[in-house]
């Protein structure tokens, strides 16, 4: 298994992975999303390739910080195919994301995860990530009326 950049040709497999993550997406939607993700110099889509099959993906976005000198990275999505889990793809994707974040001058990586994803929380903690929900809260306001991606009531969860 090796880590590589995602490309438009990955759209069909990415649609399957997004479904497994709990975000059903049409092939058309995924191709559209890839068009703006792949053109954004502050965004990185990393794929875990298992003998030519996309086994997982990590989506990382880098943001400058105004309060201190530096940037931070947000892992906005991580999914490994159900058949490929517990074989190191998630750890490899996280290591690659951390490497990209360091190279971009990031001071830290932030990960958001739905409260129900207990297995994912254990995974992040095993990698040294700390749950900081006691220190900060997250407030979100929709601008379009479209359900928010991390709203537990807006999408079915696996």
From TrEMBL:
Domain N-acetyltransferase, first and last residues per copy: 1-149
In terms of PROSITE patterns, this protein maps to:
GNAT
Q: Which UniProt keywords apply?
A: Acyltransferase, Transferase
Keyword Transferase assigned to the entry: answer is yes
Gene3D superfamilies reported in the protein's UniProt record: 3.40.630.30
Give the Gene Ontology MF terms in alphabetical order: acyltransferase activity, transferring groups other than amino-acyl groups
User: What CDD domains would the database entry show?
Assistant: NAT_SF
Q: What is this protein called?
A: GNAT superfamily N-acetyltransferase
Q: What is the protein's species of origin?
A: Actinoplanes octamycinicus
């Amino acid at each position: 298994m090796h880590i590589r950049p995602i490309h438009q040709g990955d759209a069909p497999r990415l649609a399957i992975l997004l479904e497994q993550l709990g975000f059903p997406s049409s092939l058309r939607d995924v191709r559209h999303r890839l068009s703006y993700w792949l053109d954004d110099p502050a965004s990185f889509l990393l794929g875990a390739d298992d003998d030519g099959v996309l086994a997982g993906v990590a989506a990382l976005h880098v943001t400058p910080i105004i309060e201190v000198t530096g940037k931070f990275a947000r892992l906005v999505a991580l999914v490994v195919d159900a058949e490929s889990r517990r074989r190191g793809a998630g750890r490899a994707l996280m290591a690659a994301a951390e490497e990209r974040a360091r190279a971009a001058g990031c001071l830290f990586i932030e990960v958001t995860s739905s409260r129900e994803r207990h297995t994912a929380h254990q995974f992040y903690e095993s990698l040294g990530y700390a749950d900081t929900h006691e220190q900060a809260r997250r407030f979100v306001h929709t601008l379009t009326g479209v359900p928010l991606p991390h709203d537990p009531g807006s999408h079915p969860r696996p």
